[in-house]
Amino acid sequence: EQAQHHHAGHEAVVQQPVHARNDVKFEPEQMNVPNRAVEEVQAEPPRKKEHVAPPKSNEKEEEEESPRDSNAPGENGRAVSITKEKLSEEERKKYDEGWKNNAYNQYASDMISLHRSLPDTRDKECRSIEYLKKLPDTSVVICFHNEAWSVLLRTVHSVIDRSPPHLLKEIILVDDFSDMEHLGKPLEDYMAKLGKVKIVRGKQREGLIRARLSGFSVATADVVTFLDSHCECTKGWLEPLLDRIARNESYVVCPVIDVIDDETLRYQYSKASSTSIGGFDWNMQFSWHAIPDYLRKTRSSDVMPVPSPTMAGGLFSISRKYFEKLGTYDPGMDIWGGENLELSFRVWMCGGVLEIVPCSHVGHIFRKRSPYKWRSGVNVVKKNAIRVAEVWMDDYKNYYYERFNYDLGDYGDVSARKELRKNLKCKSFKWYIEHVYPELFVPGESIASGEVRSKAKPMCVDSPADHRNYHKTVKMWPCHNQGGNQFWMLSKSGEIRRDDGCLDYSGGDGVIIYPCHGQKGNQEWQYREDNALFHVNTQKCAEVSTDGKALQMKKCTGIDRQIWYWKRIS
Ligand code: LR7
Ligand code: MN
Protein backbone atom coordinates (compact mmCIF):
# COMPACT_ATOMS: atom_id res chain seq x y z
CA GLU A 1 0.00 0.00 0.00
CA GLN A 2 2.69 2.40 1.06
CA ALA A 3 5.15 1.52 -1.67
CA GLN A 4 2.47 2.26 -4.22
CA HIS A 5 2.46 5.88 -3.21
CA HIS A 6 6.17 6.19 -3.02
CA HIS A 7 6.46 8.78 -5.73
CA ALA A 8 4.11 11.04 -3.90
CA GLY A 9 4.93 13.71 -1.42
CA HIS A 10 7.48 16.33 -0.84
CA GLU A 11 10.82 15.31 -2.33
CA ALA A 12 13.10 16.55 0.41
CA VAL A 13 11.35 14.85 3.28
CA VAL A 14 9.73 11.83 1.68
CA GLN A 15 10.30 8.62 3.62
CA GLN A 16 7.43 6.19 3.44
CA PRO A 17 4.49 8.32 2.49
CA VAL A 18 0.92 7.33 2.58
CA HIS A 19 -0.26 10.88 2.43
CA ALA A 20 1.88 13.86 1.67
CA ARG A 21 0.95 15.33 5.00
CA ASN A 22 2.46 12.34 6.76
CA ASP A 23 5.77 13.03 5.14
CA VAL A 24 6.41 16.32 6.76
CA LYS A 25 8.88 15.90 9.53
CA PHE A 26 8.87 17.86 12.72
CA GLU A 27 12.51 16.97 13.36
CA PRO A 28 12.12 16.92 17.13
CA GLU A 29 15.68 15.73 17.56
CA GLN A 30 16.85 19.07 16.20
CA MET A 31 14.20 21.04 17.92
CA ASN A 32 15.29 19.80 21.30
CA VAL A 33 12.07 19.33 23.18
CA PRO A 34 13.12 18.25 26.64
CA ASN A 35 10.62 16.42 28.75
CA ARG A 36 11.41 18.17 31.95
CA ALA A 37 8.67 20.05 33.62
CA VAL A 38 8.65 23.73 32.95
CA GLU A 39 7.72 26.14 35.63
CA GLU A 40 4.44 27.93 35.17
CA VAL A 41 5.17 31.07 33.21
CA GLN A 42 3.32 34.13 34.31
CA ALA A 43 1.60 36.49 31.96
CA GLU A 44 3.79 39.33 30.88
CA PRO A 45 3.55 42.31 33.13
CA PRO A 46 1.50 45.05 31.58
CA ARG A 47 3.60 47.75 30.07
CA LYS A 48 3.13 51.44 29.79
CA LYS A 49 -0.14 53.07 29.03
CA GLU A 50 -0.39 55.71 26.38
CA HIS A 51 -2.85 57.84 24.55
CA VAL A 52 -4.88 55.79 22.17
CA ALA A 53 -6.62 58.61 20.38
CA PRO A 54 -4.79 59.79 17.28
CA PRO A 55 -2.73 62.87 18.10
CA LYS A 56 -4.29 66.16 17.09
CA SER A 57 -1.89 67.97 14.85
CA ASN A 58 -1.20 70.86 17.25
CA GLU A 59 -0.91 68.69 20.34
CA LYS A 60 2.37 67.83 21.99
CA GLU A 61 2.98 64.21 21.22
CA GLU A 62 4.98 63.02 24.16
CA GLU A 63 4.99 59.44 25.18
CA GLU A 64 4.30 59.33 28.88
CA GLU A 65 5.35 56.45 31.02
CA SER A 66 2.64 55.74 33.53
CA PRO A 67 2.82 53.28 36.36
CA ARG A 68 2.07 49.68 35.57
CA ASP A 69 -1.54 49.03 36.18
CA SER A 70 -2.62 45.48 35.72
CA ASN A 71 -6.18 46.48 36.47
CA ALA A 72 -6.33 48.71 33.41
CA PRO A 73 -8.97 47.74 30.85
CA GLY A 74 -8.17 44.73 28.72
CA GLU A 75 -4.86 43.90 30.40
CA ASN A 76 -3.75 40.31 30.22
CA GLY A 77 -6.17 39.93 27.33
CA ARG A 78 -9.18 40.43 29.57
CA ALA A 79 -12.60 41.45 28.31
CA VAL A 80 -13.75 45.04 28.47
CA SER A 81 -17.44 45.13 29.12
CA ILE A 82 -19.34 48.30 28.60
CA THR A 83 -22.89 48.89 29.67
CA LYS A 84 -24.14 51.02 26.88
CA GLU A 85 -27.04 52.30 28.94
CA LYS A 86 -24.65 53.86 31.42
CA LEU A 87 -22.89 55.95 28.81
CA SER A 88 -23.69 59.60 28.31
CA GLU A 89 -25.50 60.45 25.14
CA GLU A 90 -22.34 61.69 23.54
CA GLU A 91 -20.36 58.60 24.51
CA ARG A 92 -23.15 56.39 23.30
CA LYS A 93 -22.89 58.04 19.93
CA LYS A 94 -19.19 57.29 19.80
CA TYR A 95 -19.91 53.73 20.79
CA ASP A 96 -22.40 53.26 17.97
CA GLU A 97 -20.16 54.95 15.43
CA GLY A 98 -17.32 52.63 16.43
CA TRP A 99 -19.42 49.58 15.70
CA LYS A 100 -20.80 51.02 12.50
CA ASN A 101 -17.43 51.97 11.02
CA ASN A 102 -15.50 48.87 11.99
CA ALA A 103 -17.92 46.03 12.68
CA TYR A 104 -16.22 45.60 16.05
CA ASN A 105 -16.34 47.50 19.29
CA GLN A 106 -13.92 50.34 18.63
CA TYR A 107 -15.07 52.10 21.78
CA ALA A 108 -13.82 49.21 23.89
CA SER A 109 -10.58 49.00 21.94
CA ASP A 110 -9.92 52.71 22.51
CA MET A 111 -9.95 52.07 26.26
CA ILE A 112 -7.22 49.46 26.04
CA SER A 113 -3.50 50.15 26.07
CA LEU A 114 -1.74 49.91 22.73
CA HIS A 115 0.76 47.74 24.54
CA ARG A 116 -1.66 45.70 26.56
CA SER A 117 -0.35 42.54 28.13
CA LEU A 118 -1.54 39.17 26.94
CA PRO A 119 -1.50 35.75 28.50
CA ASP A 120 1.29 33.45 27.41
CA THR A 121 -0.73 31.33 25.01
CA ARG A 122 1.87 28.73 24.36
CA ASP A 123 1.80 25.16 25.47
CA LYS A 124 4.36 24.52 28.20
CA GLU A 125 6.32 22.36 25.84
CA CYS A 126 6.82 25.30 23.48
CA ARG A 127 8.65 27.34 26.04
CA SER A 128 11.53 24.93 26.20
CA ILE A 129 12.01 24.37 22.49
CA GLU A 130 15.30 25.71 21.26
CA TYR A 131 15.01 27.20 17.84
CA LEU A 132 17.87 27.47 15.40
CA LYS A 133 20.45 30.03 16.49
CA LYS A 134 20.54 31.66 13.12
CA LEU A 135 17.07 32.53 11.96
CA PRO A 136 16.15 34.53 8.86
CA ASP A 137 14.74 38.00 9.44
CA THR A 138 11.29 39.09 8.31
CA SER A 139 9.37 41.95 6.81
CA VAL A 140 5.87 42.14 8.23
CA VAL A 141 3.32 43.31 5.68
CA ILE A 142 0.04 44.64 7.02
CA CYS A 143 -2.60 45.86 4.56
CA PHE A 144 -5.54 47.87 5.70
CA HIS A 145 -8.55 49.56 4.29
CA ASN A 146 -9.98 51.81 7.00
CA GLU A 147 -9.02 50.50 10.38
CA ALA A 148 -9.58 52.07 13.79
CA TRP A 149 -6.53 53.86 15.15
CA SER A 150 -6.23 51.89 18.36
CA VAL A 151 -6.70 48.56 16.61
CA LEU A 152 -4.16 49.21 13.87
CA LEU A 153 -1.62 50.60 16.30
CA ARG A 154 -2.06 47.75 18.73
CA THR A 155 -1.33 45.43 15.83
CA VAL A 156 1.87 47.29 14.99
CA HIS A 157 3.02 47.58 18.59
CA SER A 158 2.35 43.94 19.31
CA VAL A 159 4.64 43.05 16.41
CA ILE A 160 7.39 45.39 17.60
CA ASP A 161 7.01 44.55 21.29
CA ARG A 162 7.01 40.81 20.83
CA SER A 163 9.52 40.21 18.05
CA PRO A 164 13.25 39.96 18.66
CA PRO A 165 14.52 43.23 17.11
CA HIS A 166 17.15 41.56 14.97
CA LEU A 167 14.53 39.32 13.39
CA LEU A 168 12.11 42.12 12.59
CA LYS A 169 13.65 44.01 9.71
CA GLU A 170 10.69 46.22 8.91
CA ILE A 171 6.95 46.61 9.06
CA ILE A 172 5.29 47.58 5.81
CA LEU A 173 1.89 49.17 6.20
CA VAL A 174 -0.06 49.19 2.98
CA ASP A 175 -2.91 51.66 2.94
CA ASP A 176 -5.47 50.37 0.48
CA PHE A 177 -7.03 53.75 -0.21
CA SER A 178 -8.53 54.38 3.21
CA ASP A 179 -10.49 57.55 3.75
CA MET A 180 -10.44 57.74 7.55
CA GLU A 181 -8.62 60.90 8.50
CA HIS A 182 -6.43 59.43 11.22
CA LEU A 183 -4.85 57.11 8.66
CA GLY A 184 -3.39 60.03 6.73
CA LYS A 185 -0.85 62.44 8.21
CA PRO A 186 -1.39 61.39 11.86
CA LEU A 187 -0.41 57.83 10.98
CA GLU A 188 2.67 58.98 9.12
CA ASP A 189 3.83 61.14 12.00
CA TYR A 190 3.27 58.42 14.52
CA MET A 191 5.01 55.73 12.51
CA ALA A 192 7.98 57.95 11.66
CA LYS A 193 8.88 57.94 15.33
CA LEU A 194 8.87 54.16 15.60
CA GLY A 195 11.49 53.59 12.91
CA LYS A 196 11.23 50.28 11.07
CA VAL A 197 7.78 51.15 9.71
CA LYS A 198 7.27 51.97 6.04
CA ILE A 199 3.96 53.18 4.71
CA VAL A 200 2.92 52.34 1.17
CA ARG A 201 -0.13 54.07 -0.27
CA GLY A 202 -2.03 53.12 -3.38
CA LYS A 203 -3.69 55.59 -5.73
CA GLN A 204 -6.90 53.64 -5.86
CA ARG A 205 -8.66 50.85 -4.04
CA GLU A 206 -6.96 47.64 -5.02
CA GLY A 207 -8.32 45.09 -2.62
CA LEU A 208 -6.22 43.08 -0.25
CA ILE A 209 -4.59 40.84 -2.84
CA ARG A 210 -3.01 43.56 -4.96
CA ALA A 211 -2.35 45.62 -1.82
CA ARG A 212 -0.28 42.74 -0.47
CA LEU A 213 1.57 42.56 -3.75
CA SER A 214 2.55 46.20 -3.52
CA GLY A 215 3.71 45.69 0.06
CA PHE A 216 5.64 42.63 -1.00
CA SER A 217 7.37 44.52 -3.79
CA VAL A 218 9.16 46.77 -1.30
CA ALA A 219 9.95 44.05 1.25
CA THR A 220 13.64 43.35 1.77
CA ALA A 221 13.95 40.72 4.50
CA ASP A 222 14.51 36.99 3.95
CA VAL A 223 10.99 36.12 4.99
CA VAL A 224 7.73 37.95 4.47
CA THR A 225 5.06 37.71 7.13
CA PHE A 226 1.54 38.84 6.34
CA LEU A 227 -0.90 39.95 9.02
CA ASP A 228 -4.37 41.45 8.99
CA SER A 229 -4.63 44.95 10.42
CA HIS A 230 -6.53 43.88 13.56
CA CYS A 231 -4.20 41.37 15.13
CA GLU A 232 -2.21 40.98 18.32
CA CYS A 233 0.94 38.91 18.34
CA THR A 234 1.75 37.01 21.50
CA LYS A 235 5.03 36.25 23.17
CA GLY A 236 7.28 34.05 21.09
CA TRP A 237 5.04 34.15 18.04
CA LEU A 238 7.76 34.76 15.48
CA GLU A 239 10.62 32.39 16.21
CA PRO A 240 8.71 29.13 15.62
CA LEU A 241 7.56 30.40 12.23
CA LEU A 242 11.01 31.51 11.10
CA ASP A 243 12.54 28.31 12.39
CA ARG A 244 10.49 26.20 10.00
CA ILE A 245 11.48 28.32 7.03
CA ALA A 246 15.11 28.25 8.10
CA ARG A 247 14.93 24.46 7.93
CA ASN A 248 13.24 24.36 4.59
CA GLU A 249 12.63 27.27 2.28
CA SER A 250 9.49 25.72 0.86
CA TYR A 251 7.64 25.55 4.17
CA VAL A 252 4.84 28.07 4.31
CA VAL A 253 3.76 28.51 7.89
CA CYS A 254 0.78 29.93 9.75
CA PRO A 255 0.43 30.74 13.43
CA VAL A 256 -2.52 29.47 15.39
CA ILE A 257 -5.14 32.19 15.00
CA ASP A 258 -6.71 33.03 18.34
CA VAL A 259 -9.97 34.88 18.68
CA ILE A 260 -10.07 38.47 19.86
CA ASP A 261 -13.71 39.01 20.68
CA ASP A 262 -15.31 41.65 18.47
CA GLU A 263 -17.33 43.03 21.37
CA THR A 264 -15.15 42.80 24.47
CA LEU A 265 -11.71 42.52 22.82
CA ARG A 266 -11.08 39.54 25.06
CA TYR A 267 -8.12 37.49 23.92
CA GLN A 268 -9.24 33.91 23.82
CA TYR A 269 -6.68 31.27 22.96
CA SER A 270 -6.86 27.67 21.98
CA LYS A 271 -4.78 24.90 23.47
CA ALA A 272 -2.18 23.07 21.46
CA SER A 273 -4.21 19.88 21.84
CA SER A 274 -7.10 21.43 19.95
CA THR A 275 -5.19 23.06 17.12
CA SER A 276 -7.43 23.32 14.06
CA ILE A 277 -6.33 22.96 10.49
CA GLY A 278 -7.74 24.47 7.31
CA GLY A 279 -9.94 22.84 4.71
CA PHE A 280 -12.42 23.98 2.12
CA ASP A 281 -15.70 22.84 0.67
CA TRP A 282 -17.05 22.60 -2.86
CA ASN A 283 -18.59 26.00 -2.54
CA MET A 284 -15.00 27.24 -2.25
CA GLN A 285 -15.44 28.25 1.35
CA PHE A 286 -12.59 27.97 3.77
CA SER A 287 -13.36 25.90 6.90
CA TRP A 288 -11.67 24.78 10.11
CA HIS A 289 -11.30 21.13 11.09
CA ALA A 290 -9.88 18.97 13.81
CA ILE A 291 -6.73 17.10 12.91
CA PRO A 292 -7.89 13.85 11.26
CA ASP A 293 -7.18 10.61 13.06
CA TYR A 294 -4.72 9.26 10.53
CA LEU A 295 -2.50 12.29 11.17
CA ARG A 296 -3.10 12.49 14.87
CA LYS A 297 -1.77 8.97 15.23
CA THR A 298 1.56 9.97 13.76
CA ARG A 299 2.03 12.88 16.16
CA SER A 300 4.16 12.37 19.22
CA SER A 301 3.43 15.85 20.55
CA ASP A 302 0.67 18.43 20.25
CA VAL A 303 3.20 21.15 19.57
CA MET A 304 4.48 19.63 16.35
CA PRO A 305 3.68 21.75 13.31
CA VAL A 306 0.64 20.31 11.53
CA PRO A 307 0.44 20.04 7.76
CA SER A 308 -2.75 21.76 6.72
CA PRO A 309 -4.60 21.45 3.39
CA THR A 310 -5.36 25.18 3.33
CA MET A 311 -4.71 28.39 5.21
CA ALA A 312 -7.18 30.99 6.41
CA GLY A 313 -5.23 33.51 4.42
CA GLY A 314 -4.38 36.49 6.55
CA LEU A 315 -1.58 35.34 8.77
CA PHE A 316 1.43 33.48 7.44
CA SER A 317 5.16 33.59 6.81
CA ILE A 318 6.88 32.62 3.59
CA SER A 319 10.41 32.91 2.29
CA ARG A 320 10.54 36.02 0.12
CA LYS A 321 12.44 34.20 -2.63
CA TYR A 322 10.12 31.22 -2.49
CA PHE A 323 7.01 33.39 -2.69
CA GLU A 324 8.50 35.04 -5.76
CA LYS A 325 9.37 31.68 -7.29
CA LEU A 326 5.87 30.39 -6.62
CA GLY A 327 4.31 33.33 -8.44
CA THR A 328 3.23 35.49 -5.46
CA TYR A 329 -0.51 36.12 -5.91
CA ASP A 330 -2.89 36.33 -8.83
CA PRO A 331 -3.16 40.10 -9.47
CA GLY A 332 -6.44 39.48 -11.27
CA MET A 333 -8.13 38.87 -7.94
CA ASP A 334 -10.04 41.77 -6.48
CA ILE A 335 -10.88 43.06 -2.98
CA TRP A 336 -11.19 39.90 -0.86
CA GLY A 337 -11.43 36.14 -1.04
CA GLY A 338 -10.06 33.09 -2.79
CA GLU A 339 -6.38 34.03 -2.62
CA ASN A 340 -5.96 31.87 0.46
CA LEU A 341 -7.16 28.73 -1.33
CA GLU A 342 -5.20 29.65 -4.44
CA LEU A 343 -1.96 29.95 -2.50
CA SER A 344 -2.71 26.81 -0.50
CA PHE A 345 -3.31 24.67 -3.59
CA ARG A 346 -0.28 26.17 -5.28
CA VAL A 347 2.04 25.52 -2.34
CA TRP A 348 1.08 21.86 -2.08
CA MET A 349 0.75 21.11 -5.76
CA CYS A 350 4.01 22.84 -6.68
CA GLY A 351 6.30 21.16 -4.18
CA GLY A 352 5.90 23.11 -0.95
CA VAL A 353 4.42 22.33 2.43
CA LEU A 354 1.79 24.32 4.29
CA GLU A 355 1.74 24.09 8.04
CA ILE A 356 0.14 25.44 11.15
CA VAL A 357 2.62 25.94 13.97
CA PRO A 358 1.01 25.36 17.38
CA CYS A 359 3.71 27.23 19.27
CA SER A 360 2.99 30.47 17.43
CA HIS A 361 -0.15 32.35 18.43
CA VAL A 362 -1.57 35.51 16.92
CA GLY A 363 -4.96 36.94 17.82
CA HIS A 364 -7.36 38.27 15.20
CA ILE A 365 -10.61 40.18 15.57
CA PHE A 366 -13.21 38.05 13.83
CA ARG A 367 -16.09 40.15 12.57
CA LYS A 368 -19.64 39.19 11.76
CA ARG A 369 -19.92 41.50 8.79
CA SER A 370 -17.62 43.38 6.49
CA PRO A 371 -17.56 47.10 7.34
CA TYR A 372 -16.15 48.43 4.10
CA LYS A 373 -17.37 49.01 0.56
CA TRP A 374 -17.14 46.27 -2.04
CA ARG A 375 -17.36 46.64 -5.80
CA SER A 376 -20.91 47.23 -6.90
CA GLY A 377 -22.41 44.99 -9.53
CA VAL A 378 -19.77 42.24 -9.35
CA ASN A 379 -19.60 39.23 -7.10
CA VAL A 380 -15.85 39.50 -6.53
CA VAL A 381 -15.72 36.53 -4.19
CA LYS A 382 -17.23 34.27 -6.83
CA LYS A 383 -15.09 35.75 -9.57
CA ASN A 384 -11.92 35.19 -7.54
CA ALA A 385 -12.99 31.64 -6.72
CA ILE A 386 -13.63 30.83 -10.36
CA ARG A 387 -10.13 32.03 -11.21
CA VAL A 388 -8.81 29.59 -8.61
CA ALA A 389 -10.96 26.74 -9.90
CA GLU A 390 -10.06 27.35 -13.56
CA VAL A 391 -6.34 27.32 -12.94
CA TRP A 392 -5.87 24.77 -10.21
CA MET A 393 -8.77 22.37 -9.85
CA ASP A 394 -8.81 20.49 -13.16
CA ASP A 395 -12.09 18.60 -13.60
CA TYR A 396 -12.86 19.00 -9.92
CA LYS A 397 -13.86 22.58 -10.72
CA ASN A 398 -17.17 21.21 -11.94
CA TYR A 399 -18.19 20.27 -8.41
CA TYR A 400 -18.05 23.96 -7.63
CA TYR A 401 -19.64 25.07 -10.87
CA GLU A 402 -22.62 22.75 -10.57
CA ARG A 403 -23.44 24.51 -7.33
CA PHE A 404 -24.50 27.53 -9.37
CA ASN A 405 -25.42 25.75 -12.56
CA TYR A 406 -22.30 26.72 -14.48
CA ASP A 407 -23.25 30.38 -14.54
CA LEU A 408 -19.60 31.48 -14.62
CA GLY A 409 -19.91 35.05 -15.81
CA ASP A 410 -16.81 37.03 -16.74
CA TYR A 411 -13.86 35.99 -14.62
CA GLY A 412 -11.17 37.67 -16.70
CA ASP A 413 -8.06 36.21 -18.26
CA VAL A 414 -6.32 33.40 -16.40
CA SER A 415 -3.85 32.36 -19.09
CA ALA A 416 -0.85 33.80 -17.23
CA ARG A 417 -1.71 31.78 -14.15
CA LYS A 418 -2.15 28.61 -16.21
CA GLU A 419 1.24 29.29 -17.72
CA LEU A 420 2.67 29.63 -14.22
CA ARG A 421 1.26 26.26 -13.24
CA LYS A 422 2.84 24.70 -16.29
CA ASN A 423 6.22 26.32 -15.71
CA LEU A 424 6.32 25.24 -12.10
CA LYS A 425 5.44 21.69 -13.18
CA CYS A 426 2.84 21.38 -10.49
CA LYS A 427 1.02 18.19 -9.60
CA SER A 428 -2.65 17.57 -10.36
CA PHE A 429 -5.57 18.51 -8.17
CA LYS A 430 -6.35 14.81 -7.92
CA TRP A 431 -2.96 14.32 -6.34
CA TYR A 432 -3.70 17.14 -3.92
CA ILE A 433 -7.01 15.65 -2.83
CA GLU A 434 -5.65 12.15 -2.47
CA HIS A 435 -2.45 13.02 -0.66
CA VAL A 436 -3.11 16.26 1.12
CA TYR A 437 -6.83 16.28 1.84
CA PRO A 438 -8.06 12.66 1.70
CA GLU A 439 -10.68 13.36 4.36
CA LEU A 440 -12.57 15.69 2.03
CA PHE A 441 -15.90 14.41 0.73
CA VAL A 442 -15.66 14.28 -3.05
CA PRO A 443 -19.05 14.61 -4.77
CA GLY A 444 -18.00 12.30 -7.62
CA GLU A 445 -18.43 9.49 -5.17
CA SER A 446 -22.09 10.40 -4.77
CA ILE A 447 -24.92 8.33 -6.18
CA ALA A 448 -27.16 11.27 -6.99
CA SER A 449 -26.88 15.04 -6.94
CA GLY A 450 -28.58 18.31 -7.79
CA GLU A 451 -32.05 19.41 -6.88
CA VAL A 452 -34.52 17.02 -5.28
CA ARG A 453 -37.87 17.75 -6.89
CA SER A 454 -41.28 16.56 -5.78
CA LYS A 455 -43.49 14.76 -8.26
CA ALA A 456 -46.65 16.25 -6.78
CA LYS A 457 -45.61 19.93 -6.70
CA PRO A 458 -43.08 22.14 -8.50
CA MET A 459 -41.20 22.29 -5.23
CA CYS A 460 -37.66 21.34 -4.22
CA VAL A 461 -35.95 20.43 -0.94
CA ASP A 462 -34.36 23.68 0.18
CA SER A 463 -32.05 24.77 2.99
CA PRO A 464 -29.00 26.95 3.50
CA ALA A 465 -27.15 23.93 4.84
CA ASP A 466 -24.09 25.67 6.16
CA HIS A 467 -22.76 25.62 9.70
CA ARG A 468 -24.81 28.66 10.63
CA ASN A 469 -27.96 26.70 9.97
CA TYR A 470 -27.42 23.50 11.88
CA HIS A 471 -30.59 22.39 13.67
CA LYS A 472 -32.79 24.36 11.32
CA THR A 473 -35.71 22.64 9.66
CA VAL A 474 -35.40 21.77 5.99
CA LYS A 475 -38.15 23.36 3.88
CA MET A 476 -39.70 23.09 0.45
CA TRP A 477 -39.31 25.99 -1.97
CA PRO A 478 -40.23 26.52 -5.63
CA CYS A 479 -37.56 24.84 -7.74
CA HIS A 480 -35.26 27.49 -9.22
CA ASN A 481 -32.77 25.39 -11.12
CA GLN A 482 -29.83 27.44 -9.84
CA GLY A 483 -28.30 24.96 -7.45
CA GLY A 484 -27.45 26.92 -4.32
CA ASN A 485 -29.71 25.99 -1.43
CA GLN A 486 -31.39 23.32 -3.53
CA PHE A 487 -28.22 21.43 -4.35
CA TRP A 488 -27.89 18.08 -2.57
CA MET A 489 -25.79 14.99 -2.85
CA LEU A 490 -26.63 11.44 -1.93
CA SER A 491 -23.43 9.81 -0.73
CA LYS A 492 -22.59 6.13 -1.04
CA SER A 493 -23.08 5.71 2.67
CA GLY A 494 -26.61 7.09 2.45
CA GLU A 495 -26.13 10.69 3.53
CA ILE A 496 -28.06 13.46 1.85
CA ARG A 497 -25.61 16.27 2.21
CA ARG A 498 -24.11 19.53 1.10
CA ASP A 499 -20.58 20.23 2.33
CA ASP A 500 -20.55 19.28 6.00
CA GLY A 501 -24.32 19.53 6.55
CA CYS A 502 -26.49 16.40 6.42
CA LEU A 503 -30.23 15.83 6.35
CA ASP A 504 -30.96 14.43 9.77
CA TYR A 505 -34.19 12.97 11.11
CA SER A 506 -34.70 11.93 14.68
CA GLY A 507 -38.46 11.47 14.91
CA GLY A 508 -41.31 13.93 14.90
CA ASP A 509 -42.25 15.77 11.77
CA GLY A 510 -39.29 17.75 10.56
CA VAL A 511 -35.96 17.01 8.99
CA ILE A 512 -33.08 19.20 10.12
CA ILE A 513 -29.57 20.03 8.99
CA TYR A 514 -26.90 18.59 11.23
CA PRO A 515 -23.14 18.21 10.89
CA CYS A 516 -22.43 15.00 8.98
CA HIS A 517 -21.14 12.42 11.43
CA GLY A 518 -20.62 9.44 9.16
CA GLN A 519 -22.34 7.11 11.67
CA LYS A 520 -25.45 6.50 9.57
CA GLY A 521 -28.15 6.51 12.29
CA ASN A 522 -30.36 9.54 11.86
CA GLN A 523 -28.49 10.46 8.70
CA GLU A 524 -29.01 7.29 6.67
CA TRP A 525 -31.29 7.52 3.65
CA GLN A 526 -32.12 5.39 0.65
CA TYR A 527 -33.34 6.61 -2.69
CA ARG A 528 -35.47 3.63 -3.59
CA GLU A 529 -36.39 2.21 -6.98
CA ASP A 530 -39.92 3.50 -6.45
CA ASN A 531 -38.43 7.04 -6.11
CA ALA A 532 -39.16 7.25 -2.41
CA LEU A 533 -36.71 8.96 -0.05
CA PHE A 534 -36.58 6.35 2.67
CA HIS A 535 -35.18 6.94 6.15
CA VAL A 536 -33.66 3.65 7.24
CA ASN A 537 -33.66 4.13 11.01
CA THR A 538 -37.34 5.07 11.29
CA GLN A 539 -38.59 3.27 8.16
CA LYS A 540 -40.43 6.45 7.16
CA CYS A 541 -40.62 8.25 3.84
CA ALA A 542 -40.14 11.92 3.00
CA GLU A 543 -43.37 13.56 1.96
CA VAL A 544 -44.20 17.07 0.79
CA SER A 545 -47.06 18.62 2.77
CA THR A 546 -50.37 19.28 1.04
CA ASP A 547 -49.66 23.01 0.86
CA GLY A 548 -46.28 22.21 -0.69
CA LYS A 549 -44.26 24.18 1.85
CA ALA A 550 -43.07 21.58 4.32
CA LEU A 551 -40.99 18.44 4.17
CA GLN A 552 -42.46 15.82 6.47
CA MET A 553 -41.66 12.28 7.46
CA LYS A 554 -44.57 9.87 7.12
CA LYS A 555 -45.39 6.22 6.86
CA CYS A 556 -44.41 5.03 3.38
CA THR A 557 -47.50 4.83 1.15
CA GLY A 558 -46.18 5.50 -2.36
CA ILE A 559 -48.48 8.49 -3.00
CA ASP A 560 -47.22 11.16 -5.40
CA ARG A 561 -46.23 13.43 -2.52
CA GLN A 562 -43.68 10.77 -1.58
CA ILE A 563 -42.17 10.58 -5.02
CA TRP A 564 -38.92 12.49 -5.65
CA TYR A 565 -36.66 13.14 -8.61
CA TRP A 566 -32.97 13.87 -8.30
CA LYS A 567 -31.50 16.00 -11.01
CA ARG A 568 -28.60 13.63 -11.63
CA ILE A 569 -28.40 9.94 -10.85
CA SER A 570 -25.36 7.85 -11.62
O1 LR7 B 1 -10.25 45.95 -0.07
C1 LR7 B 1 -9.68 45.56 0.94
N1 LR7 B 1 -8.42 46.00 1.20
C2 LR7 B 1 -7.71 45.62 2.32
O2 LR7 B 1 -6.59 46.06 2.50
C3 LR7 B 1 -10.27 44.65 1.85
C4 LR7 B 1 -9.56 44.26 2.97
N2 LR7 B 1 -8.31 44.75 3.20
C5 LR7 B 1 -7.57 44.33 4.39
C6 LR7 B 1 -8.32 44.50 5.69
O3 LR7 B 1 -8.13 45.77 6.23
C7 LR7 B 1 -7.75 43.38 6.53
O4 LR7 B 1 -6.55 43.76 7.16
O5 LR7 B 1 -7.36 42.93 4.26
C8 LR7 B 1 -7.42 42.29 5.52
C9 LR7 B 1 -8.47 41.17 5.49
O6 LR7 B 1 -9.78 41.66 5.42
P1 LR7 B 1 -10.85 41.37 6.58
O7 LR7 B 1 -10.18 41.40 7.87
O8 LR7 B 1 -11.97 42.29 6.37
O9 LR7 B 1 -11.38 39.93 6.24
P2 LR7 B 1 -11.18 38.50 6.99
O10 LR7 B 1 -10.49 38.60 8.27
O11 LR7 B 1 -12.44 37.77 6.90
O12 LR7 B 1 -10.17 37.89 5.91
C10 LR7 B 1 -9.76 36.55 5.78
O13 LR7 B 1 -9.98 36.12 4.45
C11 LR7 B 1 -9.42 36.96 3.45
C12 LR7 B 1 -9.75 36.34 2.12
O14 LR7 B 1 -9.37 37.14 1.09
C13 LR7 B 1 -7.94 37.17 3.65
O15 LR7 B 1 -7.22 36.02 3.36
C14 LR7 B 1 -7.69 37.63 5.07
O16 LR7 B 1 -6.35 37.86 5.27
C15 LR7 B 1 -8.26 36.58 6.00
N3 LR7 B 1 -8.02 36.79 7.41
C16 LR7 B 1 -7.52 35.79 8.17
O17 LR7 B 1 -7.07 34.77 7.72
C17 LR7 B 1 -7.60 35.98 9.65
C18 LR7 B 1 -8.36 34.86 10.25
C19 LR7 B 1 -9.75 34.82 9.70
C20 LR7 B 1 -10.23 33.47 9.46
C21 LR7 B 1 -10.64 32.35 9.24
MN1 MN C 1 -9.40 40.08 9.32
Give the ligands present: ligand LR7, manganese (II) ion
Main β-sheet, in a few words? 6 strands, antiparallel
SS-derived structural category = alpha+beta
Helix proportion range: 10-25%
Description of the molecule:
Its main location: Golgi. Residues 45-59 have a biased composition (Basic and acidic residues). It is a single-pass type II membrane protein. It is found in: Golgi apparatus membrane. The protein is of the alpha+beta class. The chain contains 16 helices and 24 strands. The protein has helices at residues 20-23, 28-31, 89-102, 106-111, 124-127, 149-161, 185-194, 208-217, 239-247, 293-296, 320-325, 339-349, 380-392, 397-401, 415-423, 429-436, and strands at 138-144, 168-175, 197-201, 223-227, 231-233, 251-260, 267-268, 277-280, 286-289, 306-307, 316-319, 353-365, 448-454, 459-462, 475-478, 488-490, 496-498, 501-504, 512-515, 525-527, 533-535, 540-544, 551-555, 564-569. The strands form 6 sheets. The chain has a 6-stranded antiparallel β-sheet with strand order 19-18-17-16-13-24, with no helix packed on it. A 5-stranded mixed β-sheet has the order 3-2-1-4-11, sandwiched between helices. Strands 5, 6, 7, 10 and 12 form a 5-stranded mixed β-sheet that branches. Mean pLDDT is 90; it is low at 1-18, 28-51 and 55-67. The site of ligand LR7 has 22 residues, from strand 1, helix 8 and helix 12.
